[in-house]
Amino acid sequence: MSPIQPIRRAVLVDADPDTAFEIFTERIGSWWPLADKGVFGEGSTVAFTNGRLVEQASDGTQDVWGTVTRWEPGAAIAFTWHPGLPVEESTQVEVTFVAADSQTLVSVKHSGWERRADPSAARAQYEHGWPTVIDCYRKAIAPAPARTDATWIALVHRPGPAAPTNGSVFEEPLFAEHLAFLGRMRDAGYLVAAGPLGDGQGEGMTILRLPGAGGLEQAHKLATENDVSVASGLFTVTVRHWQVGLTG
Predict the structure, then answer these.
(1) Which is it for the CA torsion 108, 13, 135, 226, positive or negative?
(2) Which of 31, 30, 26 is nearest to 48 (CA)?
(3) Residues 129 and 155 in one domain
(4) Has residue 1 been placed in a domain?
(5) pLDDT single digits (tens) 7-39
(6) Residues 120-168: pLDDT tens digits?
């Protein structure tokens, strides 16, 4: 029986190879269509972390999608691929970045179908899935149209029921989850500013700018479900509209 051929897809993007590589890797959580192409669905995040590609649900549950086998910034990345499956069923994904005048040709090769329980069915599934993913990536690089509507949000964090009664809340292991949440908001392009409040022990404020005029509900979901430190009780959070005023 002849081997099953790899899936190959390519797209020209309006960016240099270094930028195209950065958006594919460091900013993958801002454009990957997790609602349809993720293990946990809407509300989860995904990132390359410590040599692995990991999806994290809002409750902190993680699924390792694969392990990086090649990392050449501006040139190529390769990784094993088994989202929602045991590592024994890993396939392989390789993405290359080649300059093409002022653009970059980004090529995806997905192979290794023989390791799947039903190789032909697995390949057919991804034959339909990769175009959606690549289109989301392309749109993440394309210049975004100017928008005049946005929702500005203030998140006020205070020590919650799981916070220590003695010592600083900032020294707790769960505080790393809050920093990870801020990183995800930055990668998504939402984060404006964040930091502690000097007049409140263990209190802090985060300012988000969400696209669209009706982002309060989205902000509440992000703040309470996507931040594990809040879901675990280290912090409580108050979600409020933030009024931006400019004077000159």
Answers:
(1) positive
(2) 26
(3) no
(4) no
(5) 999 998 999 999 999 999 999 999 999 999 999
(6) 999 999 999 999 999 999 999 976 455 557 889 999 999 999 888 887 8
- The tally of domains found in the chain comes to 2
Beta bridge partners of 194: 206
Do 47 and 28 touch, CB atoms closer than 8 A? yes
CA 82 to CA 88: how far, in whole Å?
8
| Structural domain span for residue 175 | 150-241
Q: Rounded to whole angstroms, how far apart are CA atoms 59 and 41?
A: 12
Question: For residue 11, which phi and psi values (nearest 5 degrees)?
Answer: -150, 140
Q: Last residue of some domain: 141, 158, 186?
A: 141
CA dihedral angle for residue 75, residue 100, residue 11, residue 84, rounded to 10 degrees: 0
pTM: 0.60
Q: How far is CA 102 from the centre of its chain?
A: 27
The answer for residues whose C-beta is within 8 angstroms of residue 122's C-beta and 6 or more apart is 91, 113, 116
The CATH number of residue 49's host domain is 3.30.530.20
